[in-house]
Amino acid sequence: MNQPEIIVQLQQGDEQAFKKLVDEWQNMVYNTALGIVQNENDADDITQEVFIQVYKSVSSFKGNSTFSTWLYRITVNKSLDYLKRIKTKNRFAFIQSLFGSNHYNHPAEFVHPGVLLENKERATALFKALQQLPNNQRIAFTLHKLEAQKYEDVAEIMNISLPATESLIARAKNNLRKKLRDYYLQNIV
Amino acid sequence: MNKNEKIEKLIEQSLNSFDNTARATPKPYLLTRLNTRLQSNNSGWDTALRFLSKPIVAAVCICLVVTVNAVVLVNNINVNKSTADEQYSDEEYNTSVAVLNELENIEP
Hints:
The complex is a heterodimer of chains A (about 190) and B (about 110).
Chain A: H1 3-11, H2 15-37, H3 40-57, H4 67-98, H5 120-130, H6 135-145, H7 151-158, H8 162-187
Helix pairs in contact in A: 1-2, 2-3, 2-4, 3-4, 4-7, 5-8, 6-7, 6-8, 7-8
Chain B: H1 3-15, H2 30-41, H3 44-52, H4 55-92, H5 97-104
C-alpha cells in the first residue's frame, strides 16, 4: 500500500490503515525522538503522542510535503516540547534543591541501543556533547547522522534553506569538537 | 602519538560513532498502548480539562474569579458600613429596660 492510499484511508477513519501506519513508521518516530531526548521511556511517550497527533490531525494533511517530512516535523516538535518541559522542571527542581529538597534531575549518560558495540563509548561521549548544543543544531545533526537524512531532507523537515542547513550542521560539528575536546581532556588525559 | 593527536583521533572517532547505527525500536504493543490512550483521550473529562488548560480560557477564568471576588468584597464593605451606622444609632438611643436592670444588678 503506498503512502497517499494509507493517508486517504486514514482520513476516512480506517482503523486498519492506522495500524499499518504505526507498524511502518514507529521505528523512525521512536529513533528520532530517542536521538533528541536521549531517554527511552520519554521517547516511547513521545512516539505515542506523535501517532495520536497524526490520528487527530491527518485530515489537515494536504500533501504539500511528503508524509515522512510531516511525520518528522511532528516528532521534532513533540521532542522539543518535551525538552522545554524538562528544562522548566529542572530549573524548578534546582531552586527546590537550594531549599533542601533533593529532586534535582542530573542528566544521566545515555547509550543508544542501536550503536555498534565498538562505538558505544565514543557515542556516549557524543550524546553528552549533543545535550549542550542549541536545539536547532542538535536537531539538524541528529537527523543527519542518526537518521541518515540528506541535507535536502533536513532542510525540508526543519523548514530552512539548504545553505542554512549546511551551515547549521557545520556549526554543530565545530561546537561538538570543542565539547568533546573538553570532555576528553578531563576524562582521558 | 602525542596527547593532542590522541585527543583529535578520539574526537573524530566520536563524531563518526553514529555511523551504521541501527534504528532503535519502541517497546512492544505500541498499538495497544496507543489505542488505550486514544480511548482515554476521548473521555469527557479529558476534553474539559484540555479546554480549561488553554491559556486564553485559563486567563478569562482567573479574571472572572478576581472580578467576582472584588464585587463581593465591595458589597461586604458597603453592608458593614451601613450595619455599623445602624448599631451606632441603636447604641446612642438605646433606652431599653434590660440595660438599666443590668446596671442595677452589678453589686451583689
